[in-house]
Each structure stands twice: as structure tokens, then as C-alpha cells.
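In this supplementary section we document a worked example of the pipeline. Step one takes a protein sequence of length 293 as its only input; no multiple sequence alignment statistics are reported here. Step two produces a three-dimensional model, which step three serialises into C-alpha cells for compact storage. The input and output of this example are shown verbatim.
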Amino acid sequence: MNLVLAIVAVVGVSMSGPLMAATAAPALAIAFWRNAMATGLLAPIALTRHRSAITGQDRHGWLLAFVAGAALAAHFACWVASLKLTSVAAATALVSMQVLFVIGIDALRGRRAAPAVVGGALLAVAGVAAISGVDLSLSTEALWGDALALAGGLFAAIYVIVGARVRETLSTTAYTFTCYGICSAILLVACLVAGVPLGGWSAQAWLMIVAVMVCAQLLGHSVINHLLAVMSPVVVSLMLLLEVPGAALLAAAFLGESLPWVTYGGIVLILAGLAVVTASSGRARRAETLVAD
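The serialised model returned by step three reads:
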């Protein structure tokens, strides 16, 4: 069942790029609306069936939920800004460093990853770099864009690490409602400060935003948040790297775009890295079980 959910999540987030690119609205505004709409859609269930769990959180629980929501908002803001300053290829490759940031943060917390996990992560990141065809520029503007893309990867890492912690005490619905609500509030402020319009678009644009919300937010991020209760942040972050080839494959299937052979090679590298990390994590869990017994 988890494998099926993982596939659904990857397909969902993979549709984010193509759908947002096809939407005639500012990317930051789309990021706000996808979170705000998801919050509104989840509200009836969250505020009835899960109200006591949400309101019953202690100060530490609320702090963690706020950090997760703020990290998600910062990820969106940095990623959108980076695309205006550097190439899409460079931004894609650099934001994929999320998995390495997860490993690094875990190490700082005293949870050092096994060499196989680090190797698998590097293999997967190499796959993303191969697909995106990294073309790093040394111009000041491009370097700022590269830095923002890296920051986007860091905030995404914080989002999944903190999310995994919050999911220990909150259900998927309660957590996603809280997290998306905080994220949308922060993005609303960002849009107002930056002067980004929040409306005035065609009916087709609004339909596309709804599609982004359903596919990328509900079927993508929400399923990912569900899996954080049963998968490590490293495995989830590696799984998210499949968004890059996933978006390319969807574009090829529905838009008739032809894919270079390097795309398929990159997919093999990502899957190989994911397999190595998953196998290593499984061995580690079995070892912990034997020690406990």
C-alpha cells in the first residue's frame, strides 16, 4: 500500500511544474492559492473529526507545526525567486540537494547516515543533474539564483524533517490542515509585500490553479506527509527527486515533447540511489529490532 501511495505522491508532485507553467498567473500567487484552497478543503474534516487533536497541541507542538509551515512557504518563495535569476536546469539540480541537507541535519542531530545511504543519495542527485543538464553560470545574478535554489532545498529538508516529527502525534489531516494554513498565511503576506496580484485572471487560469491544488497539494504533498509517519525523511526526500524525470515524462506523454536519452539514464541513477538507500534503511531497522529483542 505504501508503494502505491508513493507512486501517487510522485505523480502528483510531478504534475506541479507542467501545470504551474501552463497557468497564466504569478508562481508565488499560485503557491499561495494551492495552499489556501487545500486548507479550506480540509477545514470541514479537520475542524470536526480532528479538532481536539489540533487544539490540544502543547506549545512545542504548535512551534513545530509553525516551523514546518514556514519552511514550506520559504521553500516555495526561494524556488520561485531562483527561477527568475538562474536557469531552470541549475535551479532544479540545486534544489534537489534537499536529500543531502536532510542527511546533514540528521548528522548534526547525532543521527549519522550509513555510507550506503550517503552514496545512494549522491547517486540520485547525480541522476537529477544528468537530466537537468546543469549549466551553472558565474554571473552575479545567476549566483544569487543558485543560492536561492540551494536555500529552497534546505527549507524543503527542514519541512520533511519537522513534518516527520509532528506526524508522530498528529494525523495526516490534522497536520496538513495546520501546516498548509500557516504556509498560506505567510505566502499571503509575501504576495502583498512583493505586490504580487492575487486575482484578476481568466476562468481557465483558476481551473488550472484548482488542478495544481488537487494534483500537487492533495495527491502530492498530503500523501507525502502521510508517508512521513512510516518512511524516513531521507527516503521521502529521495523519492521526491523522481519529480524531475516525472515531469519530463508527463510532458512527453501529454505535450508530445521528445526526451533525450540522458533522461532515461538519469531515471536509472535516481531509482538505483533510492533502491540503495531503501535497502540500507531496511537493514538498519531490522538491526534495531534485533537489538531491542
